[in-house]
Design a protein that fits this description.
38 strands; Protease; Peptidase_S9A; seven-stranded antiparallel β-sheet; alpha+beta; hydrolase; globular; about 700 residues; serine protease
Length: about 700
């Protein structure tokens, strides 16, 4: 402790909330006023307190940062992807925060991508966009759109310099290097070009930050002349826009959490009226991919884990089955190429790729050797191709890029991201680490998978420290991934575990459905069951176990802190959704109305209100013996507003003052935290240092 930096104490200003006859007093609601100097002063005081309480870790933070930096090839170049007559790639340069986006012309008879192992620019390179130049003078920088026109002449890109995900869209003429006068502020993610690159479609949001409009902009005209192509008035739905791989159609994707609708515009007739593929029906989700004379339809109409069908591209109508529904095998997406279809599937908690030749030949799954892995398609912009670019990783295998020959079924490793020796010269060898799957038994008898990775020889007698990570919402799956920063924990004897809890999508749509709405508590009890199992099975012990999660996973962190504080030695909650009920009760806030199909509508339904009130972390802070808690947030986050963790920490400190609670707010960032790679590494080093301190290994 330090006598120079006082413990922050937020002022209590009682504010009443009354719903369904229930009156609740919120003493810290005033922290939601972002432009109040008192709010900023409080956040700064919390940052000062966090810095004082972690000052003894400064040396360890530097060490951990250096371990990440030394193991990372700072000057690097991605595997180039072919589109038309160019190879497209991104470079990073040692000492620079952001990527440099480039292309190089394809040379005669060049059928495989040019590979740069040292990160040096390719001969003949054209720089399309340098993130470091764009970011100059700004504490935050993020790209929203990066979209090259079909003819390769124009680049549409958008930038955000505050973290609030409001982008300014610009167009660059790649033939001259000049920016066009076309500049559109206040845009969202997503753009689509017309076939002749004369028109650019883009998306804007409403006051609640919901993307609700698709616009058409004619290149070279004033933005005041832009035309609204579609406005979505139903507040449950978001809109998006994209160009099909075939470059024949512009798709307007309209979706809520439960229902979707797709409208199409011929890319050769960008002023045409959007045609509906199939009118929305409540509870029916579908997506569209163009393939020759047909539209492929991936859907859940009487198919819980989705099925694949098709309809005529000339006159969309009935859906003709192509792949029937198979319970337990979740069809996640379909990608169409001229002579093949590729379906991304999920079965037994693992991702896979299924290839369907067009016009004959048996469908087959691409096989991978590791029992735990993640595979998915990488960028594949070419419609007519005999090769498939895919990306593969596991808990011990660094990100790897392969080309798969769709005819011979031969897979060629193009590049695996290098892991360089650490500061001590130690070379990374995958065989020095082990990964495996274990299973916990939930309160209702459900088996919950856990993925684990640890250094070979780590004891299994309960003495090893462990980090358990979880998310469990929106059908998002926490598939195995490799992390350079995680090696710093593993090499210090820490086990890393991922709890694949209900609410995620690891085991299909039913796994998701059983962890949402009025079944949401399964997410939390599953996580606690995983934590208890790790201790019971000898992987670790409660006083050596730190839980970590972010966003909706931060809600998980807050919920399990209330539910089982004795199960953990520490909790890391990043941009945590801990004031969920107050947020979901306010339809004027970003995302609230669209979230009602995930959590329920507590405004209209007293049962939902009572259920959410029983688990939302802020509502349930009590005089418990909480583990140490580190909450991290960003002032400009539009997805989980900064005041949620600020209020949570303030109430924890008031109700259970004996605990050790820290709040760290990035004053120039958004939902993803710091935008530059070095800043991101420093944040990871900060978290890992705090975590190791919980284990007594700082």
């Amino acid at each position: 402790m330090t006598t120079e930096t006082p413990v922050p104490a937020a002022r209590r200003v009682p504010t009443e909330r009354v719903h369904h006859g229930d009156t609740v007093v919120d003493e810290y609601a005033w922290l939601a006023t972002k432009d109040d100097p008192e709010t900023i002063n409080y956040l700064n005081a919390e940052n000062a307190w966090t810095e004082a309480r972690t000052a003894h870790l400064s040396g360890l933070r530097t060490t951990l940062f250096e371990e990440i930096r030394r193991r990372t090839q700072e000057t690097d170049l991605s595997v180039p992807t072919r589109k038309g007559q160019h190879w497209y790639y991104t470079r990073t340069v040692e000492g620079q925060q952001y990527g440099v986006h480039c292309r190089r012309a394809v040379r005669p008879d060049e059928t495989t991508p040019p590979i740069s192992t040292d990160g040096a620019p390719l001969d003949g390179e054209q720089i399309l966009l340098d993130g470091n130049e764009l970011a100059k003078g700004h504490d935050f920088f993020s790209l929203g759109a990066f979209d090259v026109s079909p003819d390769g002449r124009y680049l549409a890109y958008s930038t955000d310099f505050s973290g609030d995900e409001r982008f300014t869209l610009r167009v660059k003429d790649l033939s001259t290097g000049e920016l066009l006068p076309d500049e559109i502020p206040g845009t969202f993610y997503g753009t689509a070009w017309s076939g002749d690159a004369s028109v650019l479609f883009y998306v804007t949001v409403d006051e609640a930050w919901r993307p609700n409009r698709v616009w058409r902009h004619v290149i070279g005209t004033a933005t005041t002349e832009d035309v609204v192509v579609h406005t979505e008035d139903d507040e449950r739905f978001w809109v998006g826009v994209e160009l099909t791989r075939s470059e024949r159609f512009v798709l307007i994707d309209i979706a809520s959490k439960l229902t979707s609708e797709v409208r199409v515009i011929p890319a050769g007739n960008p002023t045409g009226e959007p045609a509906v593929i199939a009118p929305r029906r409540q509870g029916v989700e579908y997506s569209v991919e163009h393939h020759g004379h047909r539209f492929l339809i991936l859907h859940n109409d009487d198919a819980e884990d989705f099925a694949l069908a098709y309809t005529s591209a000339d006159a969309p109508g009935d859906w003709v089955p192509l792949i029937e529904h198979s319970p337990g095998t979740r069809l996640e997406s379909v990608d169409a190429f001229a002579d093949h279809l590729v379906v991304t599937v999920r079965s037994n908690g693992l991702t896979g790729l299924r290839v369907l030749p067009v016009g004959g030949g048996d469908a087959h799954d691409i096989e991978f050797p590791e029992p735990l892995h993640t595979v998915g398609l990488d960028a594949n912009p070419e419609y007519r191709t005999g090769r498939l670019r895919l990306r593969y990783t596991s808990l011990v295998t660094p990100d790897s890029v392969y080309d798969y020959d769709l005819v011979t079924r031969e897979m060629t490793l193009l590049r695996q991201r290098p892991v360089l020796p650490g500061p001590d010269g130690q070379v990374y060898r995958p065989e020095d680490y082990e990964q495996q799957r274990d299973w916990a038994l939930a309160d209702d008898g459900t088996k919950v998978p856990i993925s684990l990775v640890y250094r070979r020889g780590t004891p299994r007698d309960g003495s090893a420290p462990c980090v358990i990570y979880g998310y469990g919402s929106y059908e998002a799956s926490m598939d195995p991934w490799f992390s350079v920063g995680r090696l710093s924990l593993l090499d210090r004897g820490v086990i890393f575990a991922v709890a694949h809890i209900r609410g995620g999508g690891e085991l299909g749509r039913r796994w998701y459905d059983h962890g949402k709405m009025l079944a949401k508590k399964n997410t939390f009890t599953d996580f606690v069951a995983c934590a208890r199992h790790l201790a019971k099975a000898g992987w670790t012990a409660p006083d050596r176990l730190v839980a970590r999660g972010g966003s909706a996973g931060g809600l998980l962190m807050g919920a399990v802190a209330n539910l089982a504080p004795d199960a953990f030695a520490g909790i890391v909650a990043q941009v945590p959704f801990v004031d969920a009920l107050n947020t979901i009760l306010d339809p004027s806030l970003p995302l609230t109305v669209t979230e009602w199909e995930e959590w329920g509508n507590p405004l209209a339904d007293p049962e939902v209100y009572a259920y959410m009130k029983s688990y939302t972390p802020y509502e349930n802070v009590a005089a418990l013996d909480y583990p140490a808690i580190l909450a991290m947030t960003s002032l400009n986050d539009t997805r989980v507003l900064y005041h949620e963790p600020a209020k949570w920490i303030a109430r924890l400190r008031a109700v259970a003052p004996q605990g050790d609670y820290l709040l760290k707010t990035e004053m120039e960032a958004g939902h993803g935290g710091p935008s530059g790679r070095y800043d991101a590494w420093r944040e990871e080093a900060f978290i890992n240092a705090w975590t190791l301190d919980r284990f007594g290994r700082a």
